[in-house]
Amino acid sequence: MPIRPAVTWGCATAALVLAALAASVPAGADTSYLKPNFFTTANADIVTAQSSFTEDFPNPSIAVKSEAWTVIGPDGQPAKFNTVQPFTQVTILEAATKAPGTYRLSTGERLGRVGPQILIDGVWQPFAPDREIPAGAQTRQSQTATVADVYVTRGAPTKAPVDAVIGALQLKPATHPNDVYLDKGFEFHVLLNGKPVANQRVEIWREGGAYEEPAYRKELTSAADGSVKVTFDKPGVYLIWTRLSADAPVGAATPVRSYTTSLTLEVQP
Known about the structure:
2 helices
């Protein structure tokens, strides 16, 4: 049976109430991403990528730091980045790409801040730090869990890195991420602990989209089987991401986790 998420972004009423409390967190805030210097290559032996949190993709804001950085090679086996160099606003990484096939560059599932959520109009919403929680409000503790992925391919695409599982919340490609073309689009599934998530909101940003008129921001909703089909009106680099709250694993520091997972991909002409 498909999972219906415990929390997605709130309804308009909930958002307005939170705004009145000066305690809302923007839907697009603090989304992590990985962006490489190339997505496909014929013969490059190394790829360089940047990773950051952003509200304006791909402009970095806060460097991503992770204890779970990983590279999944063409054989499906995990490896380490050759270089991980964090700065204030961005982390720069290098990974070897000497063998032909697809490489998955990932932050891994990284646990972040712990904070309260507040129940507004029946919807659990994150409550901004250092804000006063109204008397009598129902709250619970939550911890963030984020994953950012990107795929790069030397030569022909391979599937093993796509099949690897990283984190609880997945954007599982049905179309190979390095085989996305303008006339074909991109299909993927939203999964939580391996099960499809129905009616989950997914947001899509385009590199340079903030300069368009109107600014490019696309929102889609997953089908009953968790599937999402994205069509594009122009080639470019896109960030696809989603966020939901769900029960944390047994023994976790908080009863709930706020999961955010992103995938960066290149749409070719």
